[in-house]
Design a protein that fits this description.
The chain is an alpha/beta fold. Helix 2 crosses helix 11, helix 7 packs across helix 8 and helix 11 crosses helix 12. The chain contains 12 helices and 28 strands. The longest helix has 16 residues. The strands form 7 sheets. The protein has a 7-stranded mixed β-sheet with strand order 13-26-27-28-24-25-14. The structure holds adenosine-5'-triphosphate (ATP) and magnesium ion. The site of adenosine-5'-triphosphate has 15 residues, from helix 2, strand 9 and strand 11.
Amino acid sequence: MESIHVEDEDPEIKSLNFIEQIIEEERAAGKNEGRVHTRFPPEPNGYLHIGHATSICLNFGLAAKYGGKCNLRFDDTNPSKEDTEYIESILTDVRWLGFRWDGEVRYASDYFRQLYDWAEQMILDGHAYVDDQPAEAISAQRMTPTEPGVESPYRERDPAENLQLFRRMKNGEFAAGERVLRAKIDMASPNMLLRDPIMYRIMHLPHYRTGNEWCIYPMYDYTHGQSDYLEGITHSVCTLEFEVHRPLYNWFLDRLIHTDYRPRQIEFARRNLSYTVMSKRMLLELVQKGHVDGWDDPRMPTISGLRRAGYTPESIRNFAGKVGVARREIVVDMSLLEFCVREHLNKIAPRVMAVLDPVRVVLENYPADRAEWVEVENNPEDASAGTRQLPFSRELYIERDDFMEEAPKKFFRMTVGNEVRLKGAYIVKCERVEKDGQGRVTTLYCTYDADTRSGSGTDSGRKVKGTLHWVSAKEAIEAEVRLYDRLFKDEDPAGHKDIDFKQFLNEESLRVLQHCKLEPGLVDARPGDRFQFQRLGYFCVDKSSRPGGLVFNRTVGLKDTWSKQNAR
Ligand code: ATP
Ligand code: MG
């Protein structure tokens, strides 16, 4: 494995990736009449994560690029792990990423009847047999890749008897594990998957779509290739672990299909992300053991987690494009994903003032009964975003750590006797500090310079080094703000032999701040709204947020401060 940080590139001038090269060569040769039909085939056994997102972008992207189609198909062959909750989440995530599948959603379970009929045909043709041995015996007989396997005593059973037994399996006459249907291929093959793989197993379990219709279920390997075939898929793009399955998929199709058309399987390497885990099993464990607040916890690498954190579909698509595809497995640095969302939010997120850890400021020379409005830009990156008015008054809040009593030389924020500008308003100077019994600052008494109002005719043009964000105390509204950090302290938490990945959980990955002070316009913020809290980072309104009980999640800081362990 190799760690990379992909450079910012213009997708238009990027050369073709290896899959596009294959497609273009085939189209030039007139294969499949130039048709491109891809699919994204998740198993509905968990929520989608950022690795899946790259696969979604790839499959839908290829279809779009070549004027083709992309199917969404659930490879739902294992009723013991599948759930409609997962189906719903996957549909939501694919749509949210901005993709539209061709026609109706497909399900491998829609092909159960066809697969069953094909299995009967294979039995009659002598390509499949019922094995009465228990699973352990079957797997022991497979031996190891360097020594040939042992043939089952049932391998040469007569097709008519096999057919009868297979029908009895289907009719529910046997208990789970009592019999399986196996393909008769080659017990000496160096490819272990060709050593008479199981095609059907008995499972007396209802399926979330087919109910109690079946008590035998086809194996994934007996289902996937034929499903691609049935859907007219031209390019079956999948991850590298399926490379060894390809001869098996082809073996089934060659026994069943007598035309030239075949889906072409092309493998690429998984995209992994540093500082997280991507295995569905591990993600499920984090959810079940309560280490996170559900699959959509903003620290999860799931698409729903990223969405709740405030990521945009554009930023994830852009990330997928930058990562690209290759045959080599790579670990992409988490900071690239953060870079992508920061870059997009910088363009679109309205700027607002929010003080997370407030300390009171009193402008002693500002009349108590005076209230004025100052004008500030909504987004300096986007003139069309316009401006808004903020109330300004004698009592304000600024960020507690924007003040220091004993400040080092280079500290350009507030300190006694030093001038700073309050953004969009006046230059102020701290005159004295008031503290409580514990020595904690309670109020900063300041004076303001009336001739320095930003953008007004009376601005003397005087410059000061520091500019602080602030909110007016009377009008400020309160919110809870959740500061998320990376979920793991280790770059590759799942990569340690003998150490459980949960040992690397970052105990400080969530800090919840109450009574943060926000500019009054945020009173109408709705779940999913995204903002830049000036000088602090990008924040998104959480799904639990309500008027009067606002909750914000930090999406990402303004800069890549992870390496510097910057507290905020
Ligand atoms: P499982 O272990 O449950 O099979 P999975 O992550 O492979 O987990 P699938 O639902 O089978 O989940 O994945 C759907 C598609 O997404 C597959 O084509 C798979 O190859 C692809 N995919 C999964 N993980 C990644 C990843 N990290 N990078 C790129 N593609 C991925
Ligand atoms: Mg899989």
